[in-house]
């Protein structure tokens, strides 16, 4: 049975399995919208370079087994050396406090499933939940229809969360292909600050499809950083939609580091709702074999005197396929906008490919907006320079590629994360680099 038919057929059983039912009407309406829209195909402009048939023609379990046998050694390998961090661990969709380390103070943190059952948070959900996630997209509607797993974090006014928070989503001990719809809601009130790291991990040889939706609200003078570390195995699919709404004088960053996973689609929307906003989007993609990573970004400049920066680097080997589609929209009242967008790519083999399309839609006349993309191979002169100094061809290539990707992670404030990304870069490039 195709996935769409499974989704429709399993929905009533899913609703019956929930303890909370106050979203039933919204879920049913979302399922109807999904049924009308259907999964995107290559005929859709936004998916013309990304074929989802590999995902949508498989069957999945909608009810993952909760039991697991993850060892401490397996879990420790996922860490970044972050003994001074907090971490939240979801295994097979369930929050496991015994694997987590939560010392968050002066902030409201709940698993999404628990928050839905907590009457005192109903008002917050009514105000924020699904208010900026698009209702016109197949996967966001599908997520609303089936979301159950994930977390809710509200950081009150002027509270600074000193420790980064690493969210682990782990799937293990599943005998069937498994479908997760994770949902995250982050609210950072005026003057507050928080940093979140998100990673997904499949320990099984069965396929995992994760459909994730995240909504981020950053209030005046607040700062929210969200880092996506994507290094899953080759039986994992990830469709991610992240929506970030910023108020005046705020700063929000989303960094996306894509190294693993069979097919990864990242959709990122920034919505400006005030002046003097800064938005940063950075990405590093290094993939090979038959992997596909697709980055779709959009920044909506709706007010004057705001800035946005997009810097995405891609390195593709084997038969890997990359996609970058970055959009910047500048409203007619958004004068003094400064928007920068850059996508640079290196192809290491004849079978590798990249489709890149940076776009600007500008309706104001007093702006500084630029975009650009490059697709090429390594600089032969630089390669010769290194080889002339006794460095092997393989090491010289790796060093040049490391330097090429490195500037896309310069705004990472978390040193263990920066070191982890550097090590993953070195591993993917098969070179020894001292940190």
UniProtKB/TrEMBL annotation:
Kindly name one Pfam family recorded for this protein.
SUFBD_core
Domain SUF system FeS cluster assembly SufBD core residue range list = 175-404
Q: Which InterPro entries match?
A: Fe-S_cluster_assembly_SufBD, SUF_FeS_clus_asmbl_SufBD_core, SUF_FeS_clus_asmbl_SufBD_sf, SUF_FeS_clus_asmbl_SufD, SufBD_N
Highest taxon of source: Bacteria
* All copies of domain SUF system FeS cluster assembly SufBD N-terminal, residue ranges: 8-167
Q: Name one GO biological process term.
A: iron-sulfur cluster assembly
Q: Which family is annotated?
A: Belongs to the iron-sulfur cluster assembly SufBD family.
Name of this chain's protein: Fe-S cluster assembly protein SufD
Which organism encodes this protein? Chryseobacterium flavum
Q: List the taxonomic lineage.
A: Bacteria, Pseudomonadati, Bacteroidota, Flavobacteriia, Flavobacteriales
- Its gene is sufD
């Amino acid at each position: 049975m195709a996935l769409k038919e499974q989704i429709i057929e399993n929905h009533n059983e899913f609703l019956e399995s929930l303890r909370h039912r106050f979203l039933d009407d919204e879920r049913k309406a979302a399922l109807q919208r999904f049924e009308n829209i259907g999964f995107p195909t290559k005929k859709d402009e936004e998916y013309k370079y990304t074929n989802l048939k590999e995902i949508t023609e498989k069957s999945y379990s909608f009810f993952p087994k909760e039991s697991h046998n993850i060892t401490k050694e397996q879990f420790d390998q996922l860490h970044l050396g972050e003994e001074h961090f907090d971490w939240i661990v979801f295994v097979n969709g369930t929050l496991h406090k015994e694997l987590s380390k939560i010392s968050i103070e002066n902030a409201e943190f709940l698993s999404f499933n628990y928050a839905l059952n907590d009457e005192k948070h109903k008002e917050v959900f009514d105000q924020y939940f699904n208010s900026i996630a698009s209702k016109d997209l197949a996967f966001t509607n599908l997520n609303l229809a089936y979301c159950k797993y994930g977390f809710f974090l509200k950081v009150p006014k002027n509270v600074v969360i000193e420790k980064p928070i690493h969210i682990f989503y782990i799937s293990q001990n599943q005998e069937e292909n498994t479908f997760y719809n994770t949902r995250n809601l982050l609210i950072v009130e005026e003057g507050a600050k928080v940093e979140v790291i998100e990673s997904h991990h499949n320990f099984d040889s069965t396929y995992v499809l994760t459909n994730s939706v995240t909504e981020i609200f950053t209030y005046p003078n607040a700062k929210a950083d969200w880092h996506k570390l994507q290094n899953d195995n080759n039986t994992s699919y990830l469709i991610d939609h992240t929506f970030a709404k910023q108020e005046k004088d705020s700063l929000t960053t989303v960094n996306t580091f894509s190294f693993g996973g069979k097919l990864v689609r990242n959709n990122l929307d920034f919505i400006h709702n005030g002046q003097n906003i800064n938005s940063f989007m950075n990405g590093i993609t290094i993939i090979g074999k038959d992997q596909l990573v697709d980055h779709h970004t959009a920044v909506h400049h709706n007010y004057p005197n705001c800035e946005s920066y997009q810097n995405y680097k891609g390195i593709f080997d084997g038969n890997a396929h990359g996609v970058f589609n970055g959009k910047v929209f500048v409203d007619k009242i958004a004068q003094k906008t400064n928007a920068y967008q850059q996508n640079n790519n290196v192809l290491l083999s004849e079978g590798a490919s990249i489709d890149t399309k940076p776009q600007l839609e500008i309706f104001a006349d007093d702006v500084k907006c630029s975009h650009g993309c490059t697709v090429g191979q390594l600089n032969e002169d630089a390669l010769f320079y290194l080889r002339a100094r006794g460095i092997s061809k393989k090491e010289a290539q790796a060093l040049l590629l490391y330097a090429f990707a490195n500037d896309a992670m310069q705004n990472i404030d978390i040193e263990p994360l920066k070191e982890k990304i550097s090590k993953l870069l070195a591993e993917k490039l098969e070179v020894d680099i001292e940190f």
